[in-house]
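Methods: holo model generation. Sequences were used as deposited, without trimming of termini or removal of tags, and paired with ligand SMILES retrieved from the corresponding compound records. Each pair was processed once, and we did not select among multiple samples. The sequence and pyridoxal-5'-phosphate SMILES for this entry were:
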Amino acid sequence: MNIFIKEKARKEIFELDEYVPGKPIEEVKRELGIDDIIKMASNENALGPPPKAVEAIKTALDMINIYPDGNCYLLKEKMSQVLEIEPEAILIGNGSDELLRLIAETFLNKDDEVIFADPTFSEYEFTAKIMGAKCIRVPLKNFCHDLDAIYAAVTSKTKIIYLCNPNNPTGTFLGEDELNLFMQKVPEDILIILDEAYIEYADDERLKSGIKYLKENKNVIVLRTFSKFYGLAALRIGYGLTNPEIARAVRKVFEPFNVNSLAQVAAAAALSDEAYIKNTLLQNKQGKEYLYKEFDQMGLDYVPTQSNFIFVDTGQDARTVFERLLKMGVIIRTGDVFGYPTHIRVTVGTTEQNQRFIASLKTVLRG
Ligand SMILES: *Cc1c(COP(=O)(O)O)cnc(C)c1O
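and the model returned the structure below.
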């Protein structure tokens, strides 16, 4: 290694693994020379972007010579109405990924401890490690968060607990009763991050948003995103709901214009694109049912999901399954990176995509 980097870079840097995203379509096109590719790897909305958001962007294009509103005033007003929460309690980020980073920068000192499930969304670990915090991983139990074990892992050094609800990559959820009990007993000086990136898809009545804990004055940040359900992944916009004091603290580490103007208008428009919202829910419901039925017929075990992706056990080496599906133009995620070497995570797509995925999977598994 270059001696300068070795001696001068912060030592936390050497602890970091690079994020491995779902393989981009263009990359697969270049590498394999095939054109007809479907990506079911990153939990994007297969319907495309919300038409109302696209319209709003067109109108706003004339203004991209002007810096965006650093306070996202109009978007916050809109969100405030929809979510029934005061604008001062809303944090808007360049994706919720950015908010995770800013939260870590606001609260984490070297050697503080953070707790999260294993496997869960990798950005919790990444952003905590950058700050030199110690990461405590608590294995899932039967694919679900094990709140007793998470509670047992709390020490006097614990600063943040991350709960992904529903969990990525398993699609499992924490029910209201269970979460209530946990929130009642967890020490008050711990910040709870409730990542609800997929909650709009949830249809189990036991799964409730953590927004209500804000009314109880708990130290909670509920994270949401416009990247998944709302179909705006490329624009990079996500949000956090918390209390105004925590919001003020986190805002101190914000860059001045962290959310671009096209993302701001698109997000506001997406929130009221009723037809898109309805279609997204319908497509996901039908897609889930179809995929469940096919997996059942193929004799594959899967984890029932509250999101727009399914964690399924192929019974074979997931890397090999991935490579073979890729050659057929279907991109999915392998479970090995999550510690499940025979599982894959597949995003629910359009009817056509789901059918093509199943047909390809059948071919691949037959060998
Ligand atoms: C995709 C995802 C995010 C990040 O979303 P962005 O707003 O695009 O940064 C956050 N949390 C979970 C669990 C996710 O799956």
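The chain has two domains: 20-48+275-366, 51-271.
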